[in-house]
């Protein structure tokens, strides 16, 4: 696995104003992609996301975190998208890819990508194959890896890029910390947060009870619990 070194000060921006040095996405599209990710994570946490494998809603999630936009992740995603190769970068980041055609100058494909990835839960599902929502090779083989990365509870940062290539549009989203580690849970099945003390994965965590999501109130994501070193599937 190739590691990517991110140097300099991390640029994490709020949903109300998302401006990054990269020109691959407009500020409005950055906000739309971030908002869509968090909207879908909130639906999942609150038990309102349909699981196609069971015909019922997926179980509620405990300790699922709200994402923040990260300009460094966007830069990495945009540089990879600019290669116009529909293949994974094999980095140490979580990564989702989306392609559509014909090529277009607008941000439509970037806005469509999030919904397309999440549809894997509704169209394929997980609950029938993993009742406790633990990621495994069998879950990965079902073709739900885009959804599982989007829903990975410990992930806190998102950055995406979009390139118009000769035959298609390519959208790349990077996630940190990465998800899709074999043996780890996509999320812990349980009640979503109602108060700050319910959020126990990272220091300085707060709860957005309406959304059922935890978030980090400033500073970097410092884990309170040591994670497991497992195999990453992309």
UniProtKB/TrEMBL annotation:
It comes from the Eukaryota. PROSITE patterns: CRISP_1 (PS01009), CRISP_2 (PS01010). Keywords: Signal. Residues 1-17 form the signal peptide. One of its GO terms (cellular component) is extracellular region. Residues 28-183 form the SCP domain. This is SCP domain-containing protein.
């Amino acid at each position: 696995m190739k590691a990517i070194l991110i140097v300099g000060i991390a640029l994490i921006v709020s949903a109300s104003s998302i401006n990054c040095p990269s020109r691959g996405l407009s500020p409005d599209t950055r906000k739309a992609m971030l908002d869509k990710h968090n909207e879908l994570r909130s639906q999942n946490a609150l038990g309102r996301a349909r699981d196609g494998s069971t015909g019922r809603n997926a179980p509620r999630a405990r300790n699922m975190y709200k994402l923040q936009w990260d300009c460094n992740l966007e830069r990495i995603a945009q540089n990879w998208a600019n290669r116009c190769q529909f293949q994974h970068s094999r980095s140490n980041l979580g990564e989702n890819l989306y392609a559509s055609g014909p090529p277009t100058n607008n941000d439509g494909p970037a806005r469509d990508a999030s919904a397309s990835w999440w549809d894997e839960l509704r169209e394929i599902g997980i609950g029938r194959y993993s009742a406790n929502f633990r990621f495994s090779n069998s879950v990965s083989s079902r073709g739900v890896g885009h959804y599982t990365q989007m829903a990975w509870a410990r992930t806190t940062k998102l950055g995406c890029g979009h390139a118009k290539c000769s035959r298609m549009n390519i959208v790349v989203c990077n996630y940190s910390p990465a998800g899709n580690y074999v043996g780890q849970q996509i999320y812990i099945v349980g009640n979503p947060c109602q108060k700050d003390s319910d959020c126990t994965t990272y220091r300085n965590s707060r709860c957005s009870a309406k959304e059922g999501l935890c978030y980090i109130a400033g500073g970097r994501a410092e884990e309170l619990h040591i994670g497991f070193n497992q195999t990453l599937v992309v």
